[in-house]
Specification:
Blueprint lengths: L9 E4 L14 E4 L5 E11 L9 E12 L4 E4 L7 E7 L4 E9 L5 E7 L9 E8 L7 E2 L5 E2 L8 E5 L2 E4 L18 E5 L4 E5 L4 E6 L7 E2 L5 E2 L4 E8 L4 E7 L6 E8 L11 E9 L1 E6 L5 E6 L4 E2 L3 E2 L4 E6 L10 E6 L5 H6 L8 H10 L9 H5 L9 E6 L5 E6 L4 E6 L7 E7 L2 E3 L5 E2 L8 E2 L4 E4 L5 E6 L2 E8 L5 E2 L2 E2 L1 E3 L18 E2 L1 H11 L6 E3 L5 E2 L7 E2 L2 E4 L3 E8 L2 E7 L3 H9 L18 H5 L4 H7 L31 E9 L2 E8 L4 E6 L7 E7 L9 H6 L12 E3 L10 E4 L3 E4 L7 E3 L11 E8 L5 E14 L5 E2 L6 E8 L3 E4 L3 E8 L3 E10 L5 E7 L19 E3 L2 E4 L2 E4 L4 E9 L4 E11 L17 E10 L16 E3 L2 H8 ...
Parallel strand pairs: 6-60, 9-13, 9-54, 10-53, 11-37, 36-46, 42-45, 62-70, 71-72, 73-80, 82-89
Antiparallel strand pairs: 1-2, 3-4, 5-7, 7-57, 8-58, 9-55, 12-55, 14-15, 15-16, 16-17, 16-18, 19-20, 20-21, 21-22, 23-24, 24-27, 25-26, 27-28, 29-30, 30-31, 31-32, 33-36, 34-35, 37-38, 38-47, 39-40, 41-43, 44-45, 47-48, 49-50, 50-51, 51-52, 53-54, 56-57, 58-59, 58-60, 61-63, 63-68, 64-67, 64-69, ...
Amino acid sequence: MPYAQHTSEIGVEPREGQLAPHEEREIRFSFKSARAAQFKSTLQLESRDVEGLNSWQQAAKISVAAESFAVDAVIEPDPREVPLDFGTVLVHSSAQRIFEILNRGRFPVRPAPSTRPDSRASDAMLVLLATLALAAARPRQLGGTPSMDTAADYSAPSSFAMVSRVYIPYDTEATSLAFGMGAAEQIAYDHMQKYAYAVSEQGVLNVIDWNDPSNPAVQSSLAYDFQGEKLTDIEICADKRVIFVGAGASTKTDNGRVHILTTVQRSSPAAPTSIGNLEAGPLPDMILPNSDCTKLAVANEGEAIYKNGLTDPAGSAMIFESSDWSNVANVVKHTVTFDSYTDSQLIQNGVHLPLSYDAMVYWDDNSYVASTVDFASARSSYSAATNLEPEYLAWSGDDSTLFVNLQENNAVAIINVPSTGSPSLTKITGLGLKDYTTIPIDLKKDQACTLATYAGLKSLRLPDSIQAVEVDGKTYLLTANEGDDVSYGDWEEKMKLKDVVESDGTPDKDMINMTITAAAASAAQAVHTATDGLRITIGSTAVDYSDPLAPEIQHIVAFGGRGISIYEHTGGDLSLTWDSGSEFETQQCAHFPWAHNGIQDEEFSPVNGTLWTTDAGIRGTLEEMAQECNDGGDGKPGACPLGQTVDERSEKDGPAPEAIVAGKACGSLLAVTATEKQSTIFVYDISNINSPTLLFVKQLSPSSETKNPGVAYADRSLGEIDPEAMIFLDAAHSPSGKAGVMVGGYELAIRRGLRELLQIDQPKEELQPGERKAITVTCTPGRVFEASSEGIALQIFDQLSGESVDHRIPPMRVALTAVYNTFQVTPPRGLNFGPVEKGETQTRSFTIRNNGIFAFNWSLFDWADPPSFGEDGQPPLSKNPVAAGPFNVKPTSGKLDPDEDVQVQVTFEAAGDEDYDSKIAIWVDGVQGEPSPDAGQLAGCSSYLLTGQSCVPGINTTDLQTVFEEQFFTRTLEDAIAIAGRLDVRVFSEADQIFHFGPVLVKERGVGTSQPTSPTAQPPEFGVTENLRLTNPKAVPCKVQLSIKPREGSDVAGSSDAFEVFPQELVISPHDSRQIQVKFTPNHLASFGAVLEAVVPQGTDPSSNYLSFELRGDGAVPSVSLQGPRLFGDEGGELDMGKLALFRRNEVQMALRNDGLLPATVRVDFAHSQNFTVACPSSVSLNKGESRSFQVRFHPHAIGKVKADLGIRTLGNPFEDVTIQLEGEGHSNEVCWELSDVRRAGGVFGMRGRLEPHAGLRAALAG
């Protein structure tokens, strides 16, 4: 029963068969068309007998007609015009959107909307593998310079998690593990054999087996010892089976070399062996092969040394060329020098010269350090190239250009490298300055994130590492703008602002003969408002030295760009495409405020540790650092944890990113960089090279918040300090088969696209002609996500056949942004109540602010005693206050709308004499957590530290030498007398616990009341006042009550009334001291005693709340004796000077002697007399045992008896006052005379008479 089929669209089944008599058979017709059209066909039915004896006979003709119609189902609204926009959705929450499908055709259809298959590899990962040491390797990228075509489909990683970490020994022994020893100074990775290599500062190459990415293992048996050489870098050409190791000479200004060794082969592991070495220039700081390993570039830094003068070799670059590195003799060397440039040409190109020739002249001849520096030799051999120090290398994608980074010069040398022939220098170009007129920067050392702009302030970017990438056929250079400076002897390029420019904008006096521009002065004054300690350069970018006799300060320029930059290489030059601005400081503040501009490095190594033991030169620094903090993380004093060094680098270089690498992962072009001193890693998606996106900010060493490196290394919780080690591994070169970065132990997982986020409700019934069906799409993002792509496709299935119909409905574009809730706590890390007196309470507050776009619930609870979380993963929202140790917190839960904040009050109840710290957990709904292995249900909660010091007030009662700082302090009174040589000493006798005033002048009625006759004699001052000092060693103010109490015991003589203390109550500030006055005023001759008590009323500690000691003193009077002729009478007597002729003189020697215990003042009263003279001052002061002689003279001027009174008054002791009556008699001698044998007129003349004194005799003789 054959048939004829005239069209391919119409079919018939079966085509032939047999019919028994009276049998019926059904013939089925089918119609299938790929286009809308009308079809007609005629089918002919023929038959014959079963045996085939007859020929075919026509039995009938059947005409078949059919028409096909196109499926006409559409999505409304039109997906080409209106996307399915979810807007912004909270991560882990759900959002729904609805679209409609309309059947505009003539037949029922079954629509099947679905998410589009993701064209990207869904299991790609970016893996970071750790090699832990103090300083690590140069950034590397395996597989050539990364290239990106933005027209291709790509996605970006969305998470970051630890994979593995390995601690590397610093020498060949597996047990030689220690922080600070530079065990992985540089690293490299052999992707073919899956071995990593690390060179140490101790001159050892270690091998790490990375065949199992989750469990890397050091293979100490494969180590290679370079016998202490200064290793600078390591590189590997895996397919060539060679290792390159750079090494500086023992004298770093001499030529170094590059060692060539064999790699370890996994099939038969054996330690590397030496092939030979190549001579390089001074200090080959970096080596880098090109993509096919036929050329090896070397950066000869040419770093200077200063020893009895400056030796500074020129920097250069070398390119070694070979097709067979096993034959060292055939390696060709090309050297590219920089000596074609002059200082002025380099400065014109924006190149920074730390010490140009003219600057060298100024500092050597005319500056304040001219007498201590010697640049004579360097000046005589100077060239501009000696200022240039190549430090880092990067190849372009086609290996035709070598970029040489000159860090200290803020510049890059661009070298043309032909495929054959000699390379040549194209240009040396500066990288420009960063201007903080509009970019905020943190300069304040205030332990906070205080970013501000400063008009006129600039900084040199001074990148350490560079990385070349290609995007859409263009070459770009990435820079990690760390900052650096140079110093030679007493000359330093880096100086504090205050040492260069005063706060009034004038040059500091040490800047001899320097002037300053108005713009620079204004910038300096602006910065002075925040800090005077900002480190600025005095190199060519800031100071014009063209006149070495009078340099001009033209700019205020700081060190380091505090971020990363991207430059486009075009026309043989570099132009800035993008800079991260202040993102590093703001993001580090937002994510890890405890690490903001902090510092951790080898100087934080433990005292008595390996570095301290092996390097005597650094011991002083380590010992100094070990005294910085009371708790280094183990409860003992030591170097500070990173969390206690906030802002230490704000005045210097801030975050200082040091390493940068780039590579492709998940189709995206990524850049990874890390800060030098804070271990903060930043991951950027730079696929859009003009506007990179920050994906992640992570902390490589979370334990450093509370532990210093030595403590954290000891318990193996230390992460990557100074994370300079970075190698980008694309998927083809990674040990895990997933793209990665070998640095510190984190993993980036790819974002899988919209497929995993969207759930579409499928229609359960067919869609009839003209019918509409609403389709619900639910989005439940599990992470941060942003997309605007064709995410939903519509398939139409034929109702009868069940097959998919080729129905070209345009896919629906889905727009979605998924975010976490974000919040800010102020203060960010915790509350420190400081010292609070025991029994008192103090209340402080912190603020929780909703910085996101969704409202969220929040809750607080004790970190050590968390509540049970519900099935929804949320804690109960209790209204009860939370008690965390002595801290009470309220409110403890609530809801915050966007931009709303709540103030949380914390009350500290000081209850003992100890330090308290408690952590509370801050839980916020819908935030991104930082899970840790031991966090449990607290994963995702933020810890908030509450600290306070409960103090019992008290005073020093043990170290009594501080009390008697102005007095003698001896074991016994006798010791003090022996030392002083006198009795009247003020001394505290430690053995007796007695303070002795010694003998003190008695104050009693009548004593000292007589008035002096001489204006120079003063009445005595009674009583002695001594200053004693009370010290408060506590952290809270201390109230002290002072009193004088009688002594106890029947044998106690004297009265306590003679002692006074001032003040009787005082308050001593924390860690301060106050003087008190104790006065002793005896009122009669006796020995006195009392007890001085100092009581701290609020003090509960017996060792510090009470101080007492005995006071003793003797009432005494001065005693002076008169020595000389014996006097008669108890109160003086008469002193008879005898009978003396007029105008003659008689003298008597007398003396005053102090026979008492006190210094004495004697008043000598004597009225003027013509007959007596007392040769003695009117007032005489005598120390104990001292005497003073004087004379009494009698010289009568009249005949007869004369008298005068001499009074001797001992001030303070009227009982010894004496009056001496001086007596004497004056007389006149008679003169008799006669003349005999005087002849006058023949006779004799005689005379008799009396001659008065001084009278003359005159006689007239006659005849």
